[in-house]
């Protein structure tokens, strides 16, 4: 039987996004065996595949790394101990395999000897002819196997290498998959892959990231103060924030899908940077303490307080990097917090975060393609959702329509274009206000997508825009249950 791989591992091997393989399965180009694909089929479809060398894969990886603010060198190699353990495990597999082969070889030799005896003892009769025929088949097959000079399947070789470099993890009961690279903990790797596993302190203190190891081996890479009970240890429980995966792993863990699953938090973060995105717009980059990170779902809001000034703002970054939080702050003479961002806030200053709140979040259970419609800084929560969708490697088509009312309103147009260049399933449509208002935009979207009711639609922007856009959609019979909106 052909060696089979999970979609995640196969995608890594041939250097494409998992969504690309999912699409190939849907169109019948690639066969699927219970969610697995065969190495032989992969080689036929990607004959020149080389590990992580595909331009598209590199681009997507770069986007993800930039979006998550993770330095590449932190992810290059696992620690020496983990590498040694993975090599030890592979050596053990090889020894087992060799012993198996030797047993089979001995069995074949015994079989050949028995057949020769049959040929001698039953000379001249029908049994002798049958024994001779079987013996000849066996000789031919043995010659082919022992004398064969087959080039090993390069994907199988790369798969072995991949197993040393990273561990594959499956979460039950969701069946979500991800890889643990470098020196990452299992929690960090799960978050980076866009999965909302349960956690609290991310520092080995609270026990909220407790998960049960169903199969595989973990190793502690960070100190933990939380003490697992003897019963928990016997049942295989471990802390995801303090351990990494030695090899391929199956765990049972809780995941959040609804805003109500996320607890309210209050955290004092520090300003990492304040950067101009235009004359009247700043990018505020905050960083939480390493030991007190913010748990949130993409698209949610926080209340930010600096000194006596507070403001509610949507988070413009992905939960995959829960320490580095971005906000798009518009100049507003009536908004004390915005004034502080424009006039006084500098690197290192404290900003208190309270939240998260809001239900402008991705529908976890939907397999529909998505249309995001943003107006002005309504792009902020949409950016968070898009980065989250990329982390999850959604295979569905993603469209972004961004209406800008000021002439310089597409303040991160280059970022959107780079996403469109890198991702086959992402389309960016910038719309300037002089070319049409909200009503015209909705008409254009309807005309461009005759099957609009097959999409999920997310709308974010100023109140008047959101009201017009949602009312237009509902009047056209668009299902309310597939429509999510946020006023920014
Ligand atoms: S998140 Fe608190 S112990 Fe892991």
Briefly, what is this?
The chain has about 500 residues and is an alpha/beta fold. The chain has helices at about 5-15, 20-25, 40-45, 55-70, 80-120, 125-145, 155-165, 185-190, 230-235, 335-345, 380-390, 415-420, 440-450, 465-475; strands at about 5, 35-40, 165-170, 175-180, 210-215, 220, 235-240, 245, 250, 265-280, 280-285, 300-305, 310-315, 325-330, 350-355, 370-375, 400-405, 425-430, 455-460, 485. Strand 16 (about 370-375), helix 11 and strand 17 (about 400-405) form a beta-alpha-beta unit.
What keyword list fits this structure?
elongated, 5 domains, 5-stranded mixed beta sheet, alpha/beta, binds FE2/S2 (inorganic) cluster, 488 residues, Ubiquitin-like (UB roll)
Total helices: the number is 14
Largest sheet: 6 strands, antiparallel
CATH fold-level name of the largest domain: Rossmann fold
Number of strands: 20
Q: What's the architecture of the largest domain, going by CATH?
A: 3-Layer(aba) Sandwich
Which small compounds were modeled alongside the protein? Answer: FE2/S2 (inorganic) cluster
- Average pLDDT level: 86
Helix content: 25-40%
Estimated structural class: alpha/beta
Cα-based radius of gyration, to the nearest Å: 28 Å
Bin the strand percentage.
15-25%
| Integer tally of domains | 5
Instruction: Identify the CATH class of the largest domain.
Output: Alpha Beta
Work out the oligomeric state of the chains in this entry.
single chain
Net shape: elongated
How do the strands line up in the largest sheet? Answer: 13-12-15-10-11-14
Q: How many angstroms does the end-to-end distance come to? A: 55 Å
The H-level CATH homologous superfamily of the largest domain, spelled out, is Nucleotide-binding domain of ferredoxin-NADP reductase (FNR) module
Which blocks of ≥5 consecutive residues have pLDDT under 50? 51-57, 68-74
């Amino acid at each position: 039987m052909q060696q089979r791989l999970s979609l995640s591992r196969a995608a890594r091997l041939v250097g494409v996004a998992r969504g690309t393989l999912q699409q190939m399965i849907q169109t019948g180009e690639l066969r699927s065996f219970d969610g697995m694909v065969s190495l032989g089929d992969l080689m036929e479809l990607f004959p020149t595949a080389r590990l992580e060398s595909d331009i598209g894969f590199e681009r997507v990886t770069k986007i993800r790394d930039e979006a998550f603010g993770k330095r590449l060198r932190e992810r290059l190699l696992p620690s020496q101990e983990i590498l040694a353990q993975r090599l030890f495990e592979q050596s053990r597999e090889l020894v087992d395999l060799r012993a198996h082969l030797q047993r089979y070889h001995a069995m074949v030799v015994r079989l050949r000897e028995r057949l020769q005896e049959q040929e001698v003892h039953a000379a001249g009769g029908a049994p002798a002819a049958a024994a001779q025929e079987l013996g000849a088949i066996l000789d031919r097959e043995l010659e082919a196997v022992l004398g064969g000079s087959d080039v090993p399947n390069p994907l199988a070789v790369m798969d072995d290498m991949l197993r040393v470099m990273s561990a594959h993890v499956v979460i039950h009961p969701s069946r979500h998959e991800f890889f643990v690279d470098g020196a990452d903990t299992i929690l960090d790797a799960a978050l980076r892959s866009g999965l909302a596993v349960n956690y609290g302190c991310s520092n080995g203190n609270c026990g909220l990231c407790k998960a049960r190891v169903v199969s595989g081996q973990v190793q502690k890479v960070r100190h933990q103060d939380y003490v697992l009970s003897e019963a928990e240890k016997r049942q295989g429980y471990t802390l995801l924030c303090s351990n990494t995966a030695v090899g391929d792993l199956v765990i049972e863990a809780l995941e959040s899908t609804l805003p109500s699953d996320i607890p309210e938090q209050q955290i004092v973060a520090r300003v990492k940077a304040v950067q101009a995105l235009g004359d009247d717009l700043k990018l505020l980059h905050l960083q939480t303490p390493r030991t007190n990170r913010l748990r949130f779902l993409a698209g949610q809001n926080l209340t930010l307080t600096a000194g006596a000034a507070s403001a509610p703002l949507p988070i413009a970054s992905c939960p995959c990097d829960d320490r580095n939080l971005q906000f798009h702050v518009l100049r507003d003479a009536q908004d004390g917090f915005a004034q502080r961002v424009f006039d006084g806030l500098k690197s290192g200053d404290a900003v208190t975060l309270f939240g998260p709140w809001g239900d402008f979040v991705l529908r976890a259970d939907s397999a529909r393609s998505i249309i995001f419609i943003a107006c002005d800084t309504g792009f902020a929560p949409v950016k968070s959702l898009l980065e989250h969708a990329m982390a999850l490697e959604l295979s569905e088509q993603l469209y972004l329509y961004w209406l800008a009312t000021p002439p310089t309103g597409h303040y991160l147009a280059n970022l959107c274009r780079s996403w469109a260049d890198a991702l086959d399933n992402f389309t960016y449509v910038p719309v300037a206000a002089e070319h049409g208002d909200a009503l015209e935009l909705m008409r254009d979207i309807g005309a461009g997508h005759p099957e609009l009711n097959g999409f999920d639609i997310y709308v974010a922007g100023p109140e008047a825009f959101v009201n017009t856009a949602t009312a237009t959609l509902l009047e056209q019979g668009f299902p309310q249950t597939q429509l999510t909106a946020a006023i920014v």
